[in-house]
Amino acid sequence: MFKPKHPIPVTQPFLPPLPEVTTFMQEIWDRKWLTNSGAFHKELEAHLARYLDVPYVALCANGTLALVIALQVLRVTGEVITTPFSFVATSHALWWNNIRPVFVDIEPEFCNLDPEKVESAITPKTTGILPVHVYGHPCKVDRLQEIADIYGLHLIYDAAHAFGVRMAGRSLADFGDLSVLSFHATKAFNTFEGGAIICHDARTYQRINYLKNFGFAGETTVVAPGINAKMNEFQAGMGLLQLQYMDEILAKRKAIAHRYMALLSGIDGISLLTPDPGVDYNHAYFPIFVDAAAFGRTRDDLYAHLKSYNYLCRRYFYPLISSFNMYKSLPGAEPSNLPTATRVAEEVLCLPIFPDLRLEHVDNIVDILSS
Ligand SMILES: *Cc1c(COP(=O)(O)O)cnc(C)c1O
User: Fold this and answer.
1) Does residue 184 have its Cβ closer than 6 Å to ligand 1?
2) Which of 245, 52, 48 minimizes the C-alpha distance to 167?
3) The predicted structure's pLDDT at residue 266
4) pLDDT score of 264
5) Cα-to-centroid distance, 346 and ligand 1 (Å)
6) Which of 25, 135, 284, 345 could form a disulfide with 318 if both were Cys (CB 3.0 to 4.6 A apart)?
7) What pLDDT is stored for residue 7 in this prediction?
8) Ligand 1 test: best mutation among 65, 182, 190, 238, most atoms within 8 Å of CB?
9) Ligand 1 centroid vs 277 CA: distance in angstroms?
10) What is the pLDDT of residue 347?
11) Around Cβ 10, how many Cβ atoms within 10 Å?
12) What is the pTM of this model?
């Protein structure tokens, strides 16, 4: 065991070589076109549609605004069923649309919204379901679509963790009425800040474009009360560069994840998510689940122990969204209604994983964890 001189964070962005960045910046400087559907913006939408194998990609300034707009585009109102086990932006996007989040428990296998608990939470005010592919592990998409179809609900996926994930050969971002991606610095694919909405028809794509640009349809024509959620040319250029390195980024993440899996599989009291052989993962996160009784340490002890060795893990997702002050009094937000999410939030610890993390650190983290 050793203690690195500098703290090792849970994640670190992949950055392309700086000379390549200055080359694309020169193009921006030459064009003097910084935002509003510039050349890089158009190019990145086209490249991502091909890379993700989806019909339309509408780029946005960040993932949270993309979620807010996705809900606006479909005019979702009233109540939406969602998961408490996510990053807080999932529910905040509902709040910003004056929609009440209705929290439904997760299933223990992959920590995603449990479809079997969705139906009993539907009321006459329910207009949509907002699940999250947590850690890039696919939700039970067929069952969720079936429920949405039966009840006439919109189905919008928060796919912020799911960039590039494929299930039985199909892009996970292609599911639902809409899927929302985040390209934040901490995500598997980053544009510093950024995000996108994946949609399936030209009319919806057009409507997203209105809504992300104040509703402008021409120089003097405003057709909708839009907001400003445009991605700028610097972000789009970073995306284009990053995309060229995606195979390398994913291969490095995979090697780290597989090393963790091999080393951690036999440890009493530590459990991992079981990968589905039909899924190509992006390995954006490496969560472990600590059973304090069997492991002999609580999750928080382990977190502090690793921190004392300069490994900064994160408890994604603790606390649950439903426990924050602005949500905790909502019907259904009480822990007794969310037993699995409540337990998992107490057990989960995300270990460092990022393309430049050396495998000797993975070995060291497991040694420290077992000591
Ligand atoms: C990162 C994240 C978001 C927010 O995306 P930003 O681009 O940071 O605004 C939303 N939902 C989930 C699940 C996330 O992890």
Assistant:
1) yes
2) 52
3) 87
4) 97
5) 21
6) 345
7) 97
8) 182
9) 26
10) 98
11) 20
12) 0.98
The pairs formed by 202-205 with CB atoms below 8 angstroms and a separation of 24 or more are 202/56, 204/56, 204/73, 204/178, 205/56, 205/58
The type of residue at 76 is V
83 pocket-lining for ligand 1 (C-beta < 6 Å): no
Q: DSSP 3-state assignment of 42? A: helix
Q: Find out whether the beta carbon of 161 lies less than 6 Å from any atom of ligand 1.
A: yes
For residue 125, indicate whether it is catalytic. Answer: no
Phi, psi of 30 (to 5 degrees): -65, -45
Residue ranges per domain, the chain?
18-104+111-244, 246-370
Contacts of 97 (CB under 8 A, 6+ apart): 68, 71, 72, 76, 77
Pick the CATH number of 246-370 from 3.40.640.10, 3.20.20.220, 3.90.1150.10, 3.40.710.10: 3.90.1150.10
SS3 label, residue 128: strand
pLDDT, averaged in runs of 10, over the chain (371 residues): 97 96 97 97 98 98 98 98 98 98 98 98 98 98 98 98 96 98 97 98 98 96 97 98 97 98 95 96 98 97 98 97 98 97 98 98 97 91
Tokens standing for residue 28? 């921006």
Residue type (1 letter), 219? E
**Residue of 3, 117, 187, 252 marked active site:** 187
Instruction: Return all residues near 279 (Cβ < 8 A) that are at least 6 apart.
Output: 137, 138, 165, 166, 167
CA distance 49 to 40: 14
CA-proximal residue: ligand 1, atom 7 (nearest): 63
Length of the chain (residues): 371
Q: Helix 18-31 crosses helix 39-52 at what angle (to 10 degrees)?
A: 130
Ligand 1 contact via 62 beta carbon (within 6 Å): yes
| Distance between Cα 95 and ligand 1 center (Å) | 15
Q: What are phi and psi of 312, to 5 degrees?
A: -95, 90
CATH architecture type of domain 18-104+111-244: 3-Layer(aba) Sandwich (3.40)
Pairwise CA distance, residues 343 & 85, whole Å: 11
Other CB atoms within a 10 A radius of the CB of residue 119 amount to 12
Question: CA distances (Å), 183 to each of 196, 216, 366, in order?
Answer: 8, 25, 29
